[in-house]
Amino acid sequence: MIQLIVNGQSRCFPTANRAETQDQESSARVLNITDLLEHMGLQGKRIAIERNGEIVPRSKFDQPMLADGDRLEIVVAVGGG
Amino acid sequence: MRKRETILDHLNIAGKDYSSRLLVGTGKYKDFSETRAAVDASGAEIITVAIRRTNLGQNPDEPNLLDVLPSSQYTLLPNTAGCYTVEDAVRTLRLARELLDGHTLVKLEVLGDPKTLYPNMVETIKAAEILIKEGFQVMVYTSDDPIAAKQLEEIGCVAIMPLASLIGSGMGILNPWNLQIIIENASVPVIVDAGVGTASDAAIAMELGCDGVLMNTAIAAAQNPILMASAMKKAVEAGREAYLAGRMPKKLYSASPSSPVEGTIASSSAPASKDKSI
After folding, report:
1. Are the C-beta atoms of B33 and B124 separated by less than 8 Å?
2. Is the Cβ–Cβ distance between A35 and A63 less than 8 Å?
3. How far apart (Å, rounded) are the C-alpha atoms in residues B110 and B92?
4. What was the pLDDT predicted at A18?
5. Taking CB atoms and an 8 Å limit, are B216 and A78 in contact across chains?
6. Which has the least CB within 10 A, A16, B47, B204, B256?
């Protein structure tokens, strides 16, 4: 398991690697941002992400960068003046 | 000749021409369809949006503002509303740039106090310096202090946006004299941002020589927001044309009637002015 703080909320996500996973649930593993977005039902949404205060460009969403305790901000555009 | 002048009268911000001088916010509407209808009635080309944490684990099919107001049709101006520090404002706009595919035109506001939403100018100037170094084109919300406004321009802000009165107050233009000084000193567009309450406020701002007006609550909080959006469009256009036309001087009285003095059928001449007998 990996613990991430997403939008201020602490959450746990599965990270079992291939060797440990016997039950074909490998798609539920959260190793990178793409996995995380899929896990939270946010895939394909217009969002931007910051990890520990730094922007994560979309080109890096597939890189295995997530570490225990990471602080992530996932934002959208909303109405405002 | 005059007509031609009106057609060519564009608002130029950071090298891009806009035909509308009304900029509108997208907050406080009852739903996205009302937002869209009001934006369209206003004729605004530049519209502000806020950047917020997405709802986690809730309705995944929630409509997205960017689907209703796509960046292909409008110039989106992400703001830093709700930011009270340099760090929060800078982080918010970096996220906005990422969200909007490298879009650099932004509205910076760093607030000083949640009660009045008055800007913190020390933090605003620091944030503007950082953002401009990072390649952002910064339209900046400021107090109506002519010195702060000049400093923001010197740093490299692409538009200076002084308040007319406090955000959401609808109090109108409280200090036209300061706005006039800011306009006179500025070589970048000056856009009144905040405080407009009704159409006449917008017209007055434009008659003072402002290059544009940015508003949200005046439209969204009207009884009929879409009708008010249309009123604001006309007020901004009317104010701009009046400014370009150059108003007549104010006089206590003119002794110069609009109709000819000669040729009236009156049998007697006008009574002698009492003043003359003195």
Report:
1. no
2. no
3. 11
4. 52
5. no
6. B256
Q: Looking at the DSSP assignment, which residues form a beta bridge with residue B22? A: B213
User: Is the pLDDT reported for residue B1 higher than 50?
Assistant: no
A79 chain-B contacts, CB cut-off 8 A: 25-29, 32, 35, 49-50, 65
B173 touches B201 (CB < 8 A): yes
Residue B107 falls in the annotated catalytic set: yes
Angstrom distance (rounded) from CA A41 to CA B260: 77
Q: Catalytic pick from B30, B107, B233, B276?
A: B107
Q: Which two tokens stand for residue B139?
A: 């339209």
Chain centroid to Cα B75, Å, comes to 15
B119-144 per-position pLDDT tens digit = 999 999 999 999 999 999 999 999 99
Of the candidates B194, B92, B189, B104, the residue with the CA atom closest to the CA atom of residue B142: B194
Distance CA B114, CA B24 (A): 22
pLDDT at A26 over 50: no
Task: Quickly count: other Cβ atoms within 10 Å of residue B5's Cβ.
Answer: 11
Residue in B closest to A53 by C-alpha: B91
CA distance B220 to chain A (A): 10
Question: Which pLDDT tens digit goes with each residue over B42-82?
Answer: 999 999 999 999 988 666 677 889 999 999 999 999 999 99
Q: Is the dihedral of CA A43, A46, A50, A54 positive or negative?
A: positive
ipTM of predicted complex:
0.86
Sequence-distant (≥ 6) Cβ neighbours of residue A79 within 8 angstroms: B25, B26, B27, B28, B29, B32, B35, B49, B50, B65
Nearest chain A CA: its distance from B144 CA (Å): 18
Separation in Å, CA of A45 to nearest CA in chain B: 8
Chain B residues 133-192 with CB within 8 Å of chain A: 167
Q: Do B49 and A9 touch (CB under 8 A)?
A: no
Whole-number Cα distances in Å, B56 to A7, A33, A76, B221 = 8, 15, 11, 29
